[in-house]
Design brief:
The protein has one domain (about 1-225): 3-Layer(aba) Sandwich (Rossmann fold), CATH 3.40.50. Helix content is about 35%, strand content about 25%. It has helices spanning about 35-45, 110-120, 150-160, 175-180, 205-220, 225-245, 245-265, 275-285; strands at about 1-5, 5-10, 20-25, 50-55, 70, 75-80, 85-90, 95-100, 125-135, 145-150, 165, 190-195.
Length: about 290
């Protein structure tokens, strides 16, 4: 069955006030935090595929999102990059739709319209975008989560999360229109972005995952895996070791800690101080180096 640009299973499942948890690659999935979360939630809730774009090439440039070859036995297959949705029914709670968004390269308005049309058919109640970005923050403090909300219930949940309201201005993703236009159709929206230290590069960032999972646990009663805390602690320990061995990082971290304390106490309208030029130069130098991965 077609709904907009999506090929959808037929018949549609009967979902109870579904909440969409979405991630966006490559814009806001630094260190694969969002991917880690959706991978674990889809496994936990034993999801089933719901929809995918019928012709993803109408929206994506496959010289930028590369198809991949893989083998099943002796048979060679091609995996085409796509935006996909899966669903999970929960006992005693709202159902989930997990959405893996890709940033479109063309026909973006049709892409957004199709997503919102699909949400309306599925009677989506809440849209929640989660992700991660690099920021000038230290690894020695609790990770900052920033974001926002549109809708009374979403705004209440945002206050409960104790995330910082985002005051970002500048280039953004076209998919922000999902959050902006969703409330026109009765869909309340949240977005939560965890700030990760710019000097920590990981294939799988469990500290970032745990920080966002704490919010999902609070708002949607999603359990947090104890093993994730253990892996996060291991990654912090490895990062501490690297800092001790790297003079530039040893100079950088204390200033990031000072900025962190100012940032979490900042009131609306306050102007944040900037890194000193020499420390900023060190940070960019470190970003360009390969200090290994945890």
């Amino acid at each position: 069955m077609k709904i907009g640009a999506f090929e959808v299973i037929d018949p549609l499942p009967e979902l109870n006030d579904p909440c969409v948890l979405a991630i966006l690659r490559p814009w806001i999935d630094v260190n694969n935090v969002g991917t880690l979360i959706l991978d674990s939630l889809e496994a936990r809730f034993e999801t089933e595929e719901l929809a995918r774009l019928a012709r993803p090439g109408n929206f994506f440039d496959f010289t930028r999102y590369r198809p991949t070859l893989y083998l099943e036995g002796d048979i060679r297959h091609v995996k085409i990059p796509n935006t996909t949705l899966s669903y999970a029914k929960r006992k005693g709670g709202d159902d989930f739709i997990f959405m893996r968004l890709l940033e479109p390269h063309s026909s973006s308005e049709i892409y957004i319209d199709s997503i919102l049309r699909l949400f309306r058919r599925l009677k989506v109640k809440r849209y929640c975008l989660i992700g991660s970005m690099y920021d000038a923050v230290p690894h020695t403090r609790p990770l900052i989560v920033s974001g926002g909300a549109i809708g009374s219930e979403a705004e209440r949940d945002f206050r409960r999360s104790q995330a910082q309201p985002s005051d970002y201005q500048g280039p953004t993703t076209i998919t922000i229109l999902i959050s902006q236009r969703g409330p026109q159709f009765g869909i309340q929206t949240n977005w939560f972005i965890v700030s990760l230290p710019q000097y920590v590069s990981l294939e799988e960032d469990y500290l970032g995952k745990v920080r966002l999972m704490e919010i999902l646990n609070l708002l949607f009663n999603v359990p947090v895996d104890q093993s994730d805390f253990e892996r996060a602690a291991e990654q912090i320990a490895l990062t501490n070791q690297r800092v001790e061995k790297t003079p530039e990082l040893k100079r950088l971290v204390p200033q990031l800690e000072t900025l962190y304390e100012i940032r979490i106490k900042k009131r609306e309208g306050d102007v944040m101080p900037k890194l000193s030029p020499d420390i900023e130069a060190i940070l960019w130098k470190i970003i360009g180096k390969d200090f290994g991965k945890a």
